[in-house]
Design goal:
This protein has 1 helix and 4 strands; from the N terminus they run ββββα. By secondary structure, the protein is of the alpha+beta class. The chain has one domain. The chain has a two-stranded antiparallel ribbon. It has a two-stranded antiparallel ribbon with strand order 2-3. A hairpin with a 2-residue loop joins strand 2 and strand 3. The chain is flat, with a radius of gyration of 14 Å. The N and C termini lie far apart (36 Å). The structure holds zinc ion. Zinc ion binds next to loops.
Length: 55
């Protein structure tokens, strides 16, 4: 199994630093990484299943 899904990628705005000019990067909220499209889909899916199980 060498197929790997990347859920996160380096933030383009701060280049993975998490900060721009000493301020927290708004794009990644200081994490230095942002979710990929694939990551967003999976997160959305997980959120939905959590919501369902709460009932
Ligand atoms: Zn950033």
């Amino acid at each position: 199994m060498d197929k790997r899904i990347n859920l996160e990628k380096e933030c383009m705005r701060c280049q993975g630093a998490g900060k721009i000019d000493g301020k927290t990067c708004a794009a990644c909220e200081g994490k230095g990484t942002v979710l990929t499209e694939e990551g967003k889909k999976i997160l959305e899916y997980l959120r939905n299943s959590i919501r369902l199980s709460e009932h």
